[in-house]
Amino acid sequence: xxxxxxxxxxxxxxxxxxDDEDPSMAPPEITSVSEASDDKAVTQGxxxxxxxxxxxxxxxxxxxxxxGVDAGFNPALLTNEIAFVRVPEDAPFLDQANVMRIxxxxxxxxxxFSLLTIEGFTEETLNGTKVVNLMGGxxxxxxxxxxxxxxxxxxxxxxxxxxxVSVTQNQVTAEVPAGVTQxxxxxxxxxxxxxxxxxxxxxxxxxxDGLNEDWSTSEWGGTHDLASNEVALGQTSIKSxxxxxxxxxxxxDNADIQFSDYQSITVQIFASDDVKAVRLALNxxxxxxxxxxxxGWNKFTIPLSDFYPNGxxxxxIFRLDFQEASNTGLPQYIFYVDDxxxx
Length: 343
What we know:
Elements: H1 2-20, E1 29-35, E2 40-41, E3 44-46, E4 50-56, E5 61-66, E6 69-70, E7 72-73, E8 82-86, E9 99-104, E10 107-112, E11 114-126, E12 129-137, E13 142-149, E14 158-162, E15 164-167, E16 171-175, E17 182-189, E18 194-201, E19 204-207, E20 216-228, E21 237-251, E22 264-271, E23 277-282, E24 287-292, E25 296-303, E26 320-324, E27 333-342
Parallel strand pairs: 3-11
Antiparallel strand pairs: 1-2, 1-4, 4-8, 5-6, 5-9, 7-8, 9-10, 11-12, 12-16, 13-14, 13-17, 15-16, 17-18, 19-27, 20-21, 21-26, 21-27, 22-25, 22-27, 23-24, 23-26
């Protein structure tokens, strides 16, 4: 009888002990957070990216927040030691407590975790050097900026590290490395996070500090200079001196420009006070768009679809014209063309 009682008592003791160690009721612990794509440990996350939380007592996860904003997670992938979460794209990232807050049935844990994003960039020339200003944050721990073009798949991957000029919480200024025509800009922080910008530069350049060697220029009713020092970026631009309604022509003599290969034309135009508008025409004025100008530099990105809103696109582009279109009856108009090409 004594043996039976002792066995019964041991069974009860084990049952209570099992309840005490139930992971769903124990407080959560975090040992690390890793970027999901390459499982690299980080202490800062990029908006819109997915991360792996490692720790203990995570299988009863109720919610995850980044700086107070609820994050998505997949309950089907939860285990006691792992949770996959996605940083919300609308989470605040500047002037925050930088807290990842996780709640389980066993309690709440706050973990130091800042956020990173690149919202956009601008370009300018500082002391004769072309730079980009990356905007967003939190850039406080910015450590490296790299311009990356091509890919390993196509065998033309090129990575050029940039010199960082200045860093604030919401802006990083970096020099554009020599030789960059088109690239994506990657910003890496000392906390392990890496954010990527939209595409910088051109898919195909016609004029950047010089005319593409496969192109030539022509004109009617005026003159032009291919090496003016009135620049938007870099060292030179094209000065175009025009009579009313005359134009500057670009011809791809040794290039095959397929319409379907590109999405937009981008260009910067400097207008003197008298120049109010310029028309950009395709294929010997088969179609055109009018660009309204303000005094100074004006940057345009014109979707190719704007030239053919009703369809009927050509197979190739064989001519581009900038025609003066102010319609004010003056004898002379001056404008400048810079950073011109296709996206």
